[in-house]
Specification:
single chain; 162 residues; mainly alpha
Length: 162
């Protein structure tokens, strides 16, 4: 790990910004979320914000909520999923992801609110989808080689449009 990730000033600044993000989402909603409002709420200057994050979307992607949601997808195994014996019940790791989102519903509701910028929704869907895809692909064997071909083509097309 880099020195800056354990520097107490970095930890303090990031904590202030994440707390400000949550406060703004809770009190003003997604429409109230700007770098200016975030910096005022956190008591930091814009330079400090941009020292840590490229933009507001980058801050959101780095929050503990998004990072923990991504980690929920880590135990997914394509072979287990395909052979899961209970066809009527949900696959436990997927259930765990929904339980996590329910536990932090106010955060996720704000992010996926109808007034949220389309770019934010797309970035979060891409982030979660890509993490899920990478994990499932990592766990596949040679016999299921073509399982993800369509998804890979879609990802390639999305990148080529940027």
């Amino acid at each position: 790990m880099s020195q800056s990730s354990t520097d107490l000033r970095v930890v303090r600044s990031r904590t202030l910004m994440e707390n400000a993000l949550l406060s703004i989402l809770e009190n003003k909603g997604i429409k109230g979320l700007t770098v200016k409002n975030l910096c005022e709420t956190a008591g930091i200057n814009r330079g400090t914000f941009y020292l840590h994050y490229k933009d507001i979307f980058h801050l959101i992607e780095e929050t503990v909520f998004i990072q923990e949601l991504l980690s929920v997808f880590e135990p997914l195994n394509v072979h287990e999923l395909m052979r899961y014996p209970d066809h009527e019940g949900a696959y436990p790791p997927i259930t765990k992801a929904f339980q996590y989102m329910h536990k932090h519903a106010s955060f996720f509701k704000a992010l996926f609110h109808s007034e949220a910028p389309a770019e934010l929704k797309e970035r979060l869907q891409y982030l979660v989808g890509t993490r899920l895809y990478e994990n499932l692909k990592r766990n596949q064997d040679d016999h299921s080689e073509n399982l993800f071909t369509d998804y890979e083509l879609l990802i390639w097309e999305m990148h080529s449009l940027e």
